[in-house]
Amino acid sequence: MDLPRHVSTLIIGAGVHGLSTGWHLAQELRARGKGADDVLIVDKTDVASGASGIACGVIRNFYYQPAMGAIMRESVDLWHSDPEAFHFHDCGYIALVPEGQDDDVSSIYERQVSEGYRSTLVRGEANVFDYMRGMFPDWRARGQTSLLHEHESGFAFNKPAMQGLAGKASDLGVRIAAGVHVTRFHRDQSGAVRSVDTNRGSIEVDQVVLAAGPWIKNFWTELGLPATLDVRDPEGNVHEGRPMWTYWRLQEGEIRIDPATYVTADGAIPPVFHFDSREPLVSLKTGDILSDELWGTYWKQDANGVQGGAAPEKLGTEAEVDPYGPDSPHYTVKEDFVDLWTSSLSHAMERFENCHHHYHDAPSGGIGCFTPDNFPVFDFAPGIENLFVVADSNHGFKMMSVGKQVARVMMGGKSEALHPFRYARFAEGDLHPVSNSPYIWG
Description:
Elements: E1 6-12, H1 16-31, E2 39-43, E3 58-59, H2 66-81, H3 83-86, E4 88-89, E5 93-98, H4 102-114, E6 119-123, H5 125-135, E7 144-150, E8 154-156, H6 158-171, E9 175-178, E10 182-187, E11 193-198, E12 201-210, H7 216-222, E13 228-232, E14 238-243, E15 246-250, E16 252-256, E17 272-277, E18 281-282, E19 289-291, E20 295-302, E21 305-309, E22 313-316, H8 335-348, E23 359-360, E24 366-370, E25 377-380, E26 387-391, H9 401-410, H10 425-428
Parallel strand pairs: 1-2, 1-12, 2-9, 5-17, 12-26
Antiparallel strand pairs: 3-8, 4-8, 5-7, 6-7, 10-11, 11-12, 13-14, 15-22, 15-24, 16-21, 16-23, 17-20, 18-19, 20-21, 25-26
Helix pairs in contact: 1-6, 1-9
């Protein structure tokens, strides 16, 4: 398609956030009797060509932070709104944690109950073990003192889900252009963006939504926005010169087995699992202890067997200009990850005793660009009144409702759900509470 010379709203990025924003913006416009042909989504490659296209696909409401929980609650409803189009499987989600995280899990459960979200809380090591044995007769992990079973959560297949979301936007008139590489922003004296240069010509714009995933730092730099900032912690201490963006590699992979061999006792698709433990983790390969401190893992059934991952690897403040280009190691994991992850599966279930022989490097997880507190920024860029930044620190795939909230803001409304993710929170010290999880996004 030929690019228009002017659009009302230009959305950069055809992942979950860009596509969801386009879809919901079109709905807002239709409700006002207007069409969406003046909304354009561009992507340098194509729909789901970045992080959204290789996401593990977990859909959950398991967040200690109330603001994240509010986003996830609405997002799960959206995934349920058309499970066929979104390739969503509502098989549930189970988090198992050891002593020290019991209060965190209880607070999550209480919030979910207050919101009408169907969940089951199990307390006590013996009760947790019995609950898991009822679902998997070969369950053998010990030491978990709390279990939260979310009955409305599950997973979706990544690229098919994004194609379904793109279809919903297109059906309402939103134009989606692939192979469009944004190269420069032109701003007026007020700081507002008035036109955007691409490899296929210049586009005049009224407003821009920047939903570029791990490429956010490149755009942030092109816009002349600060590379560092001072962060005030909840106690009032100021930490000067923190990098605005830091890259992490999400370490994920899969074991290729017949998916039919990984089902529950009654033959159903198993819930997605999040599993933390303080028990010694013993290597399947060497018999050595890999960890005798708190460690975590997650996994789910996949089309090729079982997919999942563990804690991400910090890369620093620099990464490839194109982190998902043809020469990028976007799914290369550290060698010790393979042993750790497959050993963690065996630790949990007897059926995975020799699963390291079936490990396969899969394009999953990828490189993420994280903020100073590892939580998203959803806000107008500092000093740019018409450019909204969606920077999610790799929470993104499951967060379909962010686009709904962004669309509301772009139509002149306000969003209480997005307010906790404003850029100013770093200077104000209004940061998200921290849990006892071993993950950086905890």
